[in-house]
């Protein structure tokens, strides 16, 4: 509705239809980003000079061929450019004010910045100069997050899972409090008995036995 009230409604409509015309490309790019996680060589493989990742007798990582560093870099750069176009193109028909009100758009912009910085660090790592070592990359994990954000059903599943986790932690906290109380009662009750002097000798020991019992 906010877009309909804009003065440049005709221009916004034109840009919107251009955007949805490339839906197939946007969707294909998300799958390409996910597939890249299985085709690029992991950093620990690049740093291992004793064994090659293609040595299936030492590393059994499936039969998919690994891309070279140059091929992986070209692949990732093209996919990232398409991803930038997909996520920033709505500004042309929504406007920056409407675009920035959506929390998902804000999250995607933050993730895009992380991916760009990560890619630049990876380029420096692969360069002949090699100023620094790169212990790990954020991009493989961010790609999965982008894939989840691109599918509404997956986003809703994550929200439901987050709600279930809150309930789970509440039940876990109550169970732990019950365990502490039961252990204290057992320690006090058996303190002057034979079992208390041989088995339940301290509150920590009683807590351990009660945990095993439960």
What is the oligomer described by this structure?
single chain
The proportion of residues forming helix, as a percent range, comes to over 70%
- How many DSSP helices? 11
Q: Kindly report the average pLDDT value.
A: 83
Sheet with most strands: none
The total beta strand count reads 0
Shape: elongated
* Percentage of β-strand residues: under 5%
Q: What is the total number of structural domains? A: 2
Radius of gyration: 27 Å
Low-confidence stretches: none
Walk me through this protein's architecture:
The model has no long low-confidence stretch (mean pLDDT about 85). It contains eleven helices and no strands. The protein folds into two domains: about 10-150; about 165-214, no CATH class. α4 packs antiparallel against α7, α7 packs antiparallel against α8 and α9 crosses α11 (about 205-214). It has about 210 residues and is mostly helical. The termini are far apart. The longest helix has about 40 residues, at about 150-190. GO terms for molecular function: voltage-gated calcium channel activity. InterPro entries: TPC1_plant.
């Amino acid at each position: 509705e906010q877009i309909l009230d804009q003065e440049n409604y005709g221009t916004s409509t034109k840009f919107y239809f251009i955007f949805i015309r490339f839906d197939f490309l946007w969707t294909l790019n998300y799958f390409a980003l996910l597939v890249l996680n299985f085709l690029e060589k992991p950093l620990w493989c690049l740093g291992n000079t004793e064994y090659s990742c293609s040595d299936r007798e030492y590393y059994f990582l499936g039969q998919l061929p690994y891309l070279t560093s140059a091929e992986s870099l070209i692949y990732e750069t093209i996919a990232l450019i398409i991803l930038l176009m997909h996520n920033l193109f709505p500004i042309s028909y929504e406007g920056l004010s409407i675009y920035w009100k959506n929390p998902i758009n804000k999250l995607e912009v933050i993730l895009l910045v992380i991916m760009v910085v990560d890619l630049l660090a990876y380029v420096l790592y692969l360069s002949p100069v090699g100023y620094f070592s790169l212990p790990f990359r954020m991009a493989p994990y961010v790609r999965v997050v982008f894939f989840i954000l691109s599918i509404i059903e997956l986003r809703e599943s994550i929200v439901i899972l987050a709600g279930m986790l809150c309930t789970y932690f509440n039940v876990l906290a109550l169970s732990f409090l019950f365990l502490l109380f039961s252990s204290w009662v057992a320690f006090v009750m058996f303190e002057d008995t034979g079992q208390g002097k041989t088995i339940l000798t301290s509150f920590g020991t009683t807590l351990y036995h009660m945990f095993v019992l439960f």
